[in-house]
Design goal:
Elements: H1 2-23, H2 29-41, H3 47-74, H4 79-84, E1 87-94, E2 99-100, E3 104-112, E4 118-126, H5 127-134, E5 141-149, H6 155-161, E6 165-178, H7 182-197, H8 203-214, H9 222-230, H10 241-250, H11 252-255, H12 260-277, H13 282-299, H14 306-320, H15 328-350, H16 355-379, E7 381-383, H17 386-413, H18 418-421, H19 423-442, E8 445-447, H20 448-483
Parallel strand pairs: 4-6
Antiparallel strand pairs: 1-3, 1-5, 2-3, 3-4, 5-6, 7-8
């Protein structure tokens, strides 16, 4: 019942976000205040009215937060300058690692605006300026010169818009650079240490290991990316909840020496540092929020079910950033987690074979069932070979997540050891890539029409199975009466 209530609350929040997008930009301060007051008041009413009041409050909060985010894009200290396409010099902080294309490099930059506050620009550099921008890191402090312009209506600028970009800075030139400070500098230093430990590997395995450990796939060759995508293994190159769990496992011996309060605070700090290292990717945000909720629930002595914790994590993230609703990576991560939480146990109980085979296969199938609707809605097709490819590759990927991180960290600290330490990583990555390449060669896909046919077949089979069980139960009952 509690799981049902939190799912209703999540649905209400999503409905509010969609309503806010339909309504359009507005300050919406009054709506946000009323929704916040209603959410607090829900704690003081009886159980019957609490869910209804909380749902209404979350609709208002979702709508208000979305309208405020849209209003921040439509009206800012940069709006007039963007409309006039002014040549400007701006100081800001890189919000993410720069992304390189064939002819340019772009990066999201948070810049200060007149009247206070910050706005995000999509800085685009070409030529030698692209080479200078390409080597920078998230949280670096920069001074850039360029020409402001509205966002283009193409796909990438659309993604930038949903990451709160208000415009472009074309022809960006790097004038000044200062490294990140505080926790962001620590995260960059640890990230650089891990990447330094991967140096003995050849370029493609090194790039893949950076993807497995940190979600950094910028150096992975396009044909290799295609192999992973066409075999349904591209999720292995995106940091997920497993990576967060592996990182906490590495610090397990240290954490167990602390008391409950210290252990919880230290674990939360590790999760936040790892999220900073991996650039707060949508899947990392989901995994980090879920981990923090689970840690907090354990600390207060009220462990939450997997479904409830996931829903609370999604609610918290969407309240903070309603634009996450448009992140495919975010919903794929949430769908995979939901599939595992809801289906893996029942699938494991029904699958034949030994437990060492049933458990990973059940998790793989559950995650695939969870993400299939998202993949079909977004891309229109799903590789049929994905469950088998995941069954073959997932154990090696898990080993890379644990051993590869430890080997890379030690190799970064003691470089002479790195060539020896990374040999197992190279072997594991070679196996995963071989599975990806073989899976991509199958070339069979489940499209939307086929998915409906499969769904109808499964529903029919379930109905026949239920009818047979009912008939068998009825026959058994009749036989028992006759014997009596």
């Amino acid at each position: 019942m509690r799981d049902r209530g939190v799912l209703v609350a999540l649905g209400a929040l999503i409905a509010g976000i969609l309503a806010g997008e339909h309504t359009g930009p507005a300050p919406a301060t009054a709506t946000l205040v009323v929704g916040s007051v209603g959410l607090v008041a829900a704690w003081f009413v009886d159980a019957r009215g609490r869910l209804a009041l909380a749902a209404i409050a979350l609709v208002l909060i979702g709508a208000a937060q979305t309208q405020r985010a849209l209003d921040g894009q439509a009206h800012s200290g940069l709006s007039d300058a963007i409309a006039r396409r002014e040549q400007v010099t701006v100081a800001g902080v890189l919000a993410d690692d720069p992304q390189s294309g064939r002819f340019d490099t772009d990066a999201l930059v948070r810049v200060a605006v007149a009247g206070g506050g910050h706005r995000t620009l999509l800085a685009v550099a070409t030529g030698d300026d692209a080479l200078r921008l390409r080597v920078l890191e998230a949280s670096d402090r920069v001074v850039l010169a360029g020409r402001l312009a509205p966002l283009h209506p193409d796909r990438f600028d659309g993604r930038a818009r949903w990451r709160h970009a208000v415009g472009r800075l074309d022809g960006a030139q790097l004038l000044e650079l200062r490294p990140a400070t505080g926790v962001f500098r620590l995260a960059n230093d640890v990230r650089a240490l891990v990447l330094r430990g991967t140096a003995p590997l050849t370029p493609t395995p090194r790039a893949l290991l950076a993807g497995f450990l940190l979600g950094d796939t910028r150096a992975v060759p396009d044909p290799v990316v295609a192999d992973y995508r066409d075999s349904g293994l591209s999720h292995l190159l995106a940091v997920s909840g497993e990576n967060v769990a592996f990182t906490l496992a590495l610090f397990g011996p240290l954490l167990r020496r602390l008391g409950l309060g210290g252990r919880t605070l230290a674990a939360v700090a590790i999760v936040l540092l790892f999220a900073t290292m991996t650039r707060f990717e949508p899947s990392v945000l989901r995994a980090s929020a879920l981990a923090i909720i689970a840690l907090t629930a354990s600390f207060v002595g009220r462990p939450a079910s997997g479904v409830r914790a996931l829903a609370l994590a999604v609610i918290a993230l969407l309240v903070l950033d309603p634009f996450l609703l448009h992140s495919v990576a975010f919903w794929l991560s949430c769908a995979a987690s939901a599939g595992i939480a809801l289906l893996s146990a029942s699938l494991r109980a029904r699958l034949p074979g030994p437990d060492w085979l049933r458990s990973p296969l059940a998790v793989s199938l559950a995650a695939q069932i969870g993400v299939t609707p998202v993949l079909l809605a977004t891309f229109g097709k799903v590789p049929v070979v994905t469950p088998l490819a995941n069954l073959l590759a997932a154990p090696a990927a898990e080993a890379v997540g644990v051993y590869g991180m430890l080997a890379s960290a030690v190799g970064g600290i003691v470089p002479p050891l790195a060539p020896v330490l990374q040999q197992p990583s190279a072997a594991l990555i070679a196996w995963i890539s071989a599975v990806a390449h073989a899976g991509s060669a199958v070339g069979l896909y489940l499209d939307r029409r086929s998915a409906w046919l499969v769904l109808a077949g499964l529903a029919s089979a379930a109905c026949v199975h239920r009818l047979r069980r009912s008939a068998w139960a009825g026959a058994s009952s009749t036989s028992g009466h006759v014997r009596s």
